[in-house]
């Protein structure tokens, strides 16, 4: 596949190809995403990088997202994983279709320490399926790690795409 397949991809391509220093590029990507996904903006989701193959997003362990034991709240972890998976998935869905989260499964396996980072990826086979099929579903791989490098949560994000109603 070559070139962006939708408006989101075109915006991201302009930002990524702008020659901006990384901190400004990340700020522009974060602003663009958080303007569309208000909850992500409220929580402070930060977009580190975004391509058609991968998204890398982070969430600082600040007071507004903490639970009663001082770690990032379970809902914050879920928002981070959903955001990462939705971004990379959304980069591949044509403008004539709707990207929808069908299901998410979160298994919290250990206490999160510090800030969190989520990396979501799509395989070439998944990207080709999204490009060619009129509707379908994919399981987007997401790995969430904390400041210690551990994975405090195992997540499964199932996304679908369907044609928009006319």
Automatic annotation (TrEMBL):
Ranges in coiled-coil conformation: none
Pfam family, one: DUF4442
Protein name in the entry: DUF4442 domain-containing protein
Organism encoding this protein: Achlya hypogyna
Lineage of the organism: Eukaryota, Sar, Stramenopiles, Oomycota, Saprolegniomycetes
């Amino acid at each position: 596949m070559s070139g962006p397949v939708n408006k989101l991809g075109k915006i991201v391509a302009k930002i990524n190809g702008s020659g901006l220093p990384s901190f400004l590029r990340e700020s522009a990507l974060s602003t663009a995403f958080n303007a569309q996904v208000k909850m992500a903006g409220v929580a402070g989701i930060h977009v580190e990088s975004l391509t058609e193959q991968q998204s890398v997003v982070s969430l600082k362990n600040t007071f507004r997202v903490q639970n009663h034991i001082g770690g990032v709240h379970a809902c914050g972890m879920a928002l981070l994983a959903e955001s990462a998976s939705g971004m990379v998935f959304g980069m591949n869905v044509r403008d004539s279709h709707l990207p929808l989260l069908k299901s998410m499964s979160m298994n919290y396996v250990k206490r999160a320490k510090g800030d969190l980072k989520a990396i979501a990826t799509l395989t070439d086979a998944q990207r080709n399926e999204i490009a060619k099929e009129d509707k379908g579903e994919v399981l987007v791989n997401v790995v969430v790690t904390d400041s210690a490098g551990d994975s405090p949560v195992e997540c499964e994000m199932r996304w679908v795409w369907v044609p928009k109603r006319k």
